[in-house]
Amino acid sequence: MTDNPLLPGADQPGEQGTSPYEPDELAGRDGVGVPDPFMRLWTPHRMAYIEGENKPTSTDAGSGCPFCRIPGLSDADGLIAARAESAYAVLNLYPYNPGHLMVVPYRHVADYTELTQAEVADVAKLTQQAMQTVRTVSAAHGFNIGMNQGEIAGAGIAAHLHQHVVPRWGGDTNFMPVVAQTKVLPQLLSDTRALLAKSWPTD
User: Fold this and answer.
1) Which domains does the chain have, with CATH numbers?
2) What is the pTM of this model?
3) pLDDT category of residue 32 using cuts at 50, 70 and 90
4) Which of 35, 82, 119, 180 has CA atoms 20 to 30 A from the CA of 164?
5) 203 with 129: CB under 8 angstroms?
C-alpha cells in the first residue's frame, strides 16, 4: 500500500476488477446500463473540458480570462496554493496527475519572452517551491515541467502564459490512461489545494 496521500492505495475497494455494487443495486438505476461483471469508472466532469467550458473566447485580458480572474478570488475558491509578488501557483482543473499545478504570472502576457526579470524570478521560485512541496506531501518520483507556447504547441489558453508542474510516480502511466483513457484521481481538488498550501515553503 502506498503512503502517498495523492495516490490511491493498492487495497482500495474495487481495484481487483470486481464491481463494488451488487447486480440488484444497479438494476434499479436508470442510465447505468445492464449489469455485467465489468466495473466502469464514470467521469462526467471531464465533459466540461472536452466541450471547452470556461475556455476564453477572446485573447483579451480581464474577467474573460480565467488566469486574470483567479487572483481576485480567495485562495480556496481559486484553488491557489501560493502567491508571490508577480505570479501565483494554482491547481489545474483538469489534472494529468494528482497535484498538477500551474505557475502563472498575474500580468496577461502570452509569450515567455514578454516576462520581466521579476516575473521570470517569481515563476522560477514558485516552480521550485511547487516541486519541494509535492515531494514533501506525496514523495513524487519526478516531474514534467514546461510551457506550451501558442495554440499550435498545445496551449489550452494561449493568451495567458502558464507553466505546468506535473508530478510523476513510477507506474502512473498504466492501463487506465493508455487503454481506458481515464485518470484515477483519489482526492478532491479543494483537499489537494489545502494539503499543498499547508506545506508550502514560506521563504
Assistant:
1) 41-199 (3.30.428.10)
2) 0.70
3) low
4) 180
5) no
